[in-house]
């Protein structure tokens, strides 16, 4: 049994980026799918595909600029033993807004910039640059 599946997903992405792999696979869940779709929309992932099977898997294709991965750093902010919640006006700024923080809000999973713009707070899941 895995205690933190989001941290597992982020670790798989981090390891694939450091070893310059094009793709990595993670087990499917609704939160992981929403997280992957957001990373694709922000340009950190090139493609997200779902493979049927037992268990169903998400195939994440990482985005690169030449030989350098677009993901330089990906860190888990809120952990199962220590949740991190922020109000809309207290949203973190990652690298002076060059990076993003992914936030789980009542309106769904979104970036810190979208949450600030919509005026909603929530749990800060991770930060990426």
Automatic annotation (TrEMBL):
GO MF annotation terms: rRNA binding; structural constituent of ribosome
RNA-binding as UniProt keyword: yes
TM helices/strands, residue ranges: none
InterPro entries: Ribosomal_uS8 (IPR000630), Ribosomal_uS8_CS (IPR047863), Ribosomal_uS8_sf (IPR035987)
Keywords carried by this UniProt record: Ribonucleoprotein, Ribosomal protein, RNA-binding, rRNA-binding
This protein's record includes keyword Ribosomal protein: yes
SUPFAM superfamilies, per database record: Ribosomal protein S8
GO cellular component assignments: cytoplasm; ribonucleoprotein complex; ribosome
GO biological processes: translation
UniProt cross-references to Pfam families, sorted A to Z: Ribosomal_S8
Signal peptide extent: none
Job description of the protein: One of the primary rRNA binding proteins, it binds directly to 16S rRNA central domain where it helps coordinate assembly of the platform of the 30S subunit.
HAMAP family, per the entry: Ribosomal_uS8_B
Subunit structure: Part of the 30S ribosomal subunit. Contacts proteins S5 and S12.
Similarity-based family: Belongs to the universal ribosomal protein uS8 family.
The protein's name: Small ribosomal subunit protein uS8
Gene behind the chain: rpsH
